[in-house]
Amino acid sequence: MSALPEGGLAPPGDRARPGGGGAVGAAGDGALTIAAEPFDAPDSRHLIDELMADLEVRYAADVEPGEGNPELSGEQLVTADQVSPPHGVFLVARLDGRPVGCGALRPDRDGRPGLAEIKRMYVVPEARGRGISRALLAALEAEAVALGYRRVRLETGVRQPEAVRLYKSAGYHRIAGYGRYETDLLSLFFAKDLRPA
């Protein structure tokens, strides 16, 4: 493994790959590693559960009592086969070996060639502000290029201002809505065209 350049990724041969060592960098006081891990592994599931709890708190006032979480069913549901090679990936960020963040890349649900969707981006509260989300996003983009995607898109929400700032600062631009949240006033949609390495 090699150290990440400031704000960048390891060289393509050192990128996080399934079964590989992953990318390494510095995040505040500790060593940051980002690597592909199984979507259904205990650490992965724990991070996703934390993400869902975070979203429930942020959007509690916007949900009708008894209304289920659409992220856990239907087209928003993310499955292990979607975020596994050869078409997707699930990355876990670890700070000094402890899981502190995650992100997923899956093929476009409508089958558009060259298009992938970023899902399940999350960093635990105590590890925020250290550049981990930026490193995860860059790693997901590198994986997208390696998997042959030319464009990535994502959906986030108005109650996630730090995510919106991250995506804008990373070169993402607003796009028209799509999928289950297409007309949801709480949703914001972004995309970025990728350059091959």
Layout of strands and helices, then pairs:
Elements: E1 23-27, E2 30-36, H1 42-58, E3 89-95, E4 98-107, E5 115-123, H2 132-146, E6 151-157, H3 161-169, E7 173-174, E8 187-193
Parallel strand pairs: 5-6
Antiparallel strand pairs: 1-2, 2-3, 3-4, 4-5, 6-8, 7-8
Tell me what the structure shows.
With 197 residues, the chain is of the alpha+beta class. The chain has a domain at 12-60 and 76-150: 3-Layer(aba) Sandwich (Aminopeptidase). It contains three helices and eight strands, in the order ββαβββαβαββ. It has an eight-stranded mixed beta sheet, with helices on both faces. Residues 1-21 have low confidence and may be disordered.
Quick tags:
3 helices; alpha+beta; disordered N terminus; 197 residues; eight-stranded mixed sheet; Aminopeptidase; 27% strand; single chain
Largest beta sheet: strand ordering: 1-2-3-4-5-6-8-7
The radius of gyration computed from the alpha-carbon positions, rounded to a whole number of angstroms, is 16 Å
Strand content: 25-35%
Q: How many individual helices?
A: 3
Query: Main sheet, how many strands, which sense, barrel?
Result: 8 strands, mixed
Oligomer: single chain
CATH class of the domain at 12-60 and 76-150: Alpha Beta
For the record, give the distance between the C-alpha atoms at the N and C termini, rounded to a whole number.
Answer: 19 Å
Structural class designation:
alpha+beta
The CATH superfamily of the domain at 12-60 and 76-150 is identified as Gcn5-related N-acetyltransferase (GNAT)
- Helical content band: 10-25%
Concise summary:
By secondary structure, the chain is α+β, with helices and mostly antiparallel strands.
